[in-house]
Design goal:
Elements: H1 9-19, E1 27-30, H2 40-56, E2 59-64, H3 74-87, E3 94-96, H4 101-113, E4 117-120, H5 124-130, H6 148-160, E5 169-172, E6 187-191, E7 205-207, H7 209-219, E8 224-228, H8 235-245, E9 251-255, H9 267-275, H10 290-296, H11 300-310, H12 321-335, E10 337-339, E11 341-342, E12 345-350, E13 359-364, E14 374-379, E15 382-386, E16 406-409, E17 414-422, E18 428-436, E19 453-454, E20 456-458, E21 463-470, E22 495-502, E23 514-517, E24 521-525, E25 535-540
Parallel strand pairs: 1-2, 2-3, 8-9, 10-23, 12-18, 16-19, 21-25
Antiparallel strand pairs: 4-5, 5-6, 6-7, 11-22, 12-15, 13-14, 15-20, 16-17, 17-18, 21-22, 23-24, 24-25
Helix pairs in contact: 2-11, 7-8, 11-12
The structure holds adenosine-5'-triphosphate and magnesium ion (MG).
Length: 546
């Protein structure tokens, strides 16, 4: 059964455009600045841009918005490509705004020729001061009156490297009293003698965002240029530049950026966490980056499902991290093989099971999957169970182990706790139990009815594994409203590392492989694993925690 979904506002616009024959087909783009790794917010933008093109038979470009030479790196470009593909999308063309530097320069010259741009020698402080305020108009300065010839000459000299950083800028000549502050002669080009990761030292002037973005959209004939709400005020300038340059009329549409509870989504701040070693790199499983999500074990299908579920909003809001975790659980429930792993071991001796004997018991990998298969689990006289699954003085309706009580060991037998061994301090160190041979799972003729089922592992064959338990990185629900340093809000217990005891089958796992550890959550093998010590990341708990 397919659910009839209503169109989001961008789909409505596209369907109207296609119905009116405004475009033969649509072209969108995803335009990351390669100055960091992609995060969950970018996933929203990727799913939206690529999803629209897939839905309407159009195409999507991956365009690196690499107009700022100082912060950009090749490492980031490579990782962005990997992340987009991991999410499940393929771009029509891989493009770079820096490849348009010559065309952008020519467009700037065209504006100068039309008397719509001028070279300004003011400092950035002077420019800011002359700009006025939202309630007071700005003041034009004398440079605004420069002739076309003088501007052409000065701009060429800027390009040729005649001036130092900050000595001059190129500005659009629009209206110093405009109600939209961005329209008060915005800066289009600045001088920056810096090495660019692609163009090297070919340029020492670089276009500003507003002069590069819309023009790149036009060059690529993007039909629907989708960005986040903070660019609403830029739309007027976007349109002004396209109109006055007489280039392809791309159109900008804005949607609400994705904000999530207990999460920060700003590359700049995430970079700070990496640089200051608050986390172990961009792909630390606690990071809201796509590489972090991948390493943690979030399936890309769950991220796409999540982006689909939250829809496309026109107003900023805060999305519950629990919704993403719900999508992750739903997917892993069907996909992940079950394994038994004891986190806090308590020894159980099965006194009526022969010493030295090992019985192999089949256990289903995943009853939720179509062909989940089975594995063999060793059963012996000495087992580990979870310390939490024993209580010396249990309340009524306690269905796990207690003195004299019975419980079923999953895929194995019913056992009864016969006696409790303590050390000198009174701590329980061992349980002695008997098993019921007729109660074997799948062949139970014991007639016994026990309510509790617990996981276990056979002690001699148990494999010690490192388990990394993650909690949220920040303690504050809405990180967008904080006013102090965001690092004051870090959760000091966001990572807890424990050694656990796993059934031997788990030793065969490969990095990236995903499991449900029975009753403990979903886990993913980490690339830090060695043959001697496998490492697992907790992807998500089995249920939403309070
Ligand atoms: P950041 O502030 O984290 O650096 P950004 O917007 O500067 O993000 P870009 O690389 O410029 O990052 O963004 C590429 C695209 O992803 C843009 O179209 C941007 O609007 C979109 N995007 C970025 N963050 C989000 C978000 N939280 N939700 C939705 N879209 C986003
Ligand atoms: Mg940006």
């Amino acid at each position: 059964m397919t659910e009839e979904k209503s169109l989001n506002f961008i789909e409505e616009i596209i369907e109207a455009d296609l119905a009116a024959g405004n475009y033969p087909s649509i072209t969108t783009r995803f335009p990351p600045e390669p100055n960091g790794y992609l995060h969950l917010g970018h996933a929203k933008s990727i799913c939206l841009n690529f999803g629209l093109a897939l839905k309407y038979g159009g195409k999507t470009n991956l365009r690196f918005d690499d107009t700022n030479p100082v912060t950009e790196e090749v490492e980031f470009v490579e990782n962005i490509k990997q992340d987009v593909q991991w999410l499940g999308f393929q771009w029509a063309h891989e493009l770079y705004a820096s490849d348009y530097f010559s065309q952008l320069y020519e467009l700037a010259v065209k504006l100068i020729r039309k008397g719509l741009a001028y070279v300004d020698d003011s400092t950035s402080e002077e420019i800011a001061e002359q700009k006025g305020t939202p309630t007071a108009p700005g003041k034009p300065n004398p440079y605004r009156q420069r002739s076309v010839e003088e501007n052409l000459k000065l701009f060429a000299e800027m390009k040729a490297g005649r001036y130092l950083d900050g000595a001059k800028v190129l500005r659009a000549k629009i209206d110093m009293a405009h109600v939209n502050m961005l329209m008060r002669d915005p800066v289009l080009y600045r001088i920056k003698h810096a090495h660019h990761h692609r163009t090297g030292d070919a340029w020492c002037i670089y276009p500003m965002y507003d002069f590069a973005h819309g023009q790149s959209d036009s060059i690529e004939q993007i039909t629907h240029s989708i960005c986040t709400l903070e660019f609403v005020p830029h739309r007027e300038l976007y349109n002004w530049l396209i109109e006055n340059l007489e280039i392809y009329p791309s159109k900008q549409y804005e949607f609400a950026r994705l904000n999530m509870t207990y999460t920060l989504m700003s590359k700049r701040k995430l970079l700070q966490l990496v640089n200051e070693k608050v986390v172990n790199g961009w792909d630390d499983p606690r990071m809201p980056t796509l590489s972090g999500a991948r390493r943690r074990g979030y399936p890309p299908e769950s991220l796409r499902e999540f982006c689909d579920k939250i829809g496309v909003a026109k107003r900023d809001n805060l999305i519950d991290m629990g919704l993403l975790e719900f999508c992750v659980r739903e997917h892993l429930n069907k996909k992940a093989s079950r394994r038994m792993v004891v986190f806090d071991p308590l020894k159980v001796i099965i006194t009526n099971f022969p010493e030295g004997k090992t019985e192999m018991l089949p256990s289903e990998n995943n009853t939720e999957a179509e062909n989940g298969g089975t594995r063999q689990m060793p059963f012996s006289r000495e087992l580990w169970v979870e310390r939490e699954d024993f209580m010396e003085n249990p309340p009524k309706k306690y269905f796990r182990l207690s003195p004299g009580g019975m419980v079923r060991l999953k895929s194995a037998y019913i056992i009864r706790c016969e006696s409790v061994i303590k050390d000198a301090t009174g701590k329980v160190v061992e349980l002695h139990a008997t098993y019921v041979p007729e109660s074997k799972s799948g062949h139970d003729t014991s007639g016994l009815h026990v309510k509790g089922v617990i996981h276990w592992v056979s002690a001699p064959q148990a494999v010690p594994v490192e388990v990394r338990l993650y909690d949220r990185l920040f303690l504050t629900e809405d990180m967008s409203t904080i006013e102090d340093d965001f690092k004051n809000h870090l959760n000091p217990h966001s990572l807890n590392v424990v050694t656990a005891y796993a059934e031997p089958e788990l030793a065969k796992a490969k990095p990236g492989e995903q499991f449900q550890f029975l009753r403990m959550g979903y886990f993913c093998q980490d690339a830090d694993s060695t043959d001697r010590k496998p490492v697992f990341n907790r992807t998500v708990t089995l249920r939403e925690s309070k």
